[in-house]
Amino acid sequence: MFKSITQLNQMSQEEFVNVLGTVFEHTPQIAQKAWNYRPFVDATQLHQKMVDVVSVMSIDEQLALIRVHPDLGSKALMAENSVEEQTGLGLDRLTAQEYDYFQLLNQAYKDKFGFPFIIAVKNHTKDSVLDEFERRLKNTVEVEIASAIAQINKIAWFRTLNLVE
Questions:
Q1: CA 109 – CA 116 distance, rounded (Å)
Q2: For the segment 97-137, what is each residue's pLDDT rounded down to a tens digit?
């Protein structure tokens, strides 16, 4: 379902959100607001405008965006994009021991920070994700909020590239 920048620039707000509303997990309001910045010259500028929308959100809105993301390696119901991304890393095929370790790290992270661990899994391995989990568990809440938003923006970039020619 690739769309060109020209097509996106000509869409109504509703059509635009139908195409790009899933770029940020369960938060179509970001695409809805970004629509106001048309015309876009390319996918990079489109993505940057969506990132700009996120950057001016209140801390409560940013935390809500962070909290709608699923746990890594979870068997919970999640958005189709998240399923594909985690499947690509093999998180749907964890051994019982790996699954238990992911759940332990997920819970430790949520207990410390109050939101799920978020990482753009593309170009990662299970081991590199686990290394990041362990490293980031040592951070402060403020650092992790910034890290989560940066990772969300990176995920959104990969998703944008999957939608825009």
A1: 7
A2: 988 998 999 999 999 999 999 999 888 888 899 999 999 99
DSSP-based three-state secondary structure for 164? strand
**Domains in the chain: boundaries:** 5-161
Assigned token pair, 95: 């051994």
CATH number at 5-161: 1.10.3330.10
State the DSSP H helix or E strand holding residue 30, giving kind and residue range, or none if neither: helix 29-34
Q: To which residue do tokens 């405008």 refer? A: 49
Tens-place pLDDT, residues 3-18: 999 999 999 999 999 9
Closest CA to 121 of 74, 63, 64, 54: 74
Residues designated catalytic = 69
- How far is Cα 71 from Cα 106, in angstroms, rounded to an integer? 6
Please report, for residues 6, 75, 78, 101, the alpha-carbon distance to residue 91 in angstroms, rounded to integers and kept in the order given: 36, 9, 13, 12
